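Customer escalation, tier 2.

The customer says the design service returned an amino acid string that "doesn't look like it belongs to this structure." They asked us to rerun it and document both sides in this ticket. The original structure tokens are below, unchanged.
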């Protein structure tokens, strides 16, 4: 609108039924804007609420293994890890060592390597196995689209079988 004195700008804002809002107080001359400040604050609150609504929270699930895990238990826990990955969560895999098992961390590393080989088509290793105290950790994250391809393949196979029957 141009350069006005503070009193004159305030009367213009009052006559329009709006507020005089100081935008840049350190510039010369001071920059002000005539606006409905209540409406502006309301719109900002709506934008923040929408941003919170659309943000994605990345979940980190944890699965605990032992270095001397049996085949059946391993397969069950691997299934749980697959389920977590399918839902889009990262999975922290922990190998817990007790007592004399601490002398053989290579057994825990073997379990983690076997699991990473089994999960290779579905997940990437974000953090390589690290030994912290009595535990060894590894972090895996799902590969986008890995499970969708599997589901579409199953649908295609069932459709072909139905068409042949």
């Amino acid at each position: 609108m141009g350069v006005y004195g503070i009193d004159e700008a305030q009367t213009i804002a009052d006559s329009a039924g709006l507020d005089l809002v100081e935008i840049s107080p350190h510039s010369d001359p001071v920059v002000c804007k005539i606006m409905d400040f209540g409406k502006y604050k309301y719109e900002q609150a709506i934008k923040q609420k929408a941003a919170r609504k659309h943000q994605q929270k990345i979940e980190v699930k944890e699965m605990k293994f032992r270095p001397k895990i049996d085949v059946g238990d391993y397969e069950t826990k691997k299934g749980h890890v697959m389920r977590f990955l399918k839902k889009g969560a990262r999975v922290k895999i922990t190998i817990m060592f007790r007592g004399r098992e601490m002398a053989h961390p290579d057994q825990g590393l073997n379990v983690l390597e076997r699991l990473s080989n089994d999960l290779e088509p579905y997940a990437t290793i974000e953090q390589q196995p690290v030994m912290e105290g009595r535990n060894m950790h590894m972090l895996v994250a799902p590969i986008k689209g890995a499970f969708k391809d599997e589901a579409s393949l199953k649908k295609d196979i069932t459709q072909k079988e139905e068409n042949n029957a």
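Tier 2 assessment: The sequence is consistent with the input. The chain has a mean pLDDT of 85. The first helix runs from residue 6 to 16. Sent an explanation to the customer and offered a walkthrough call.
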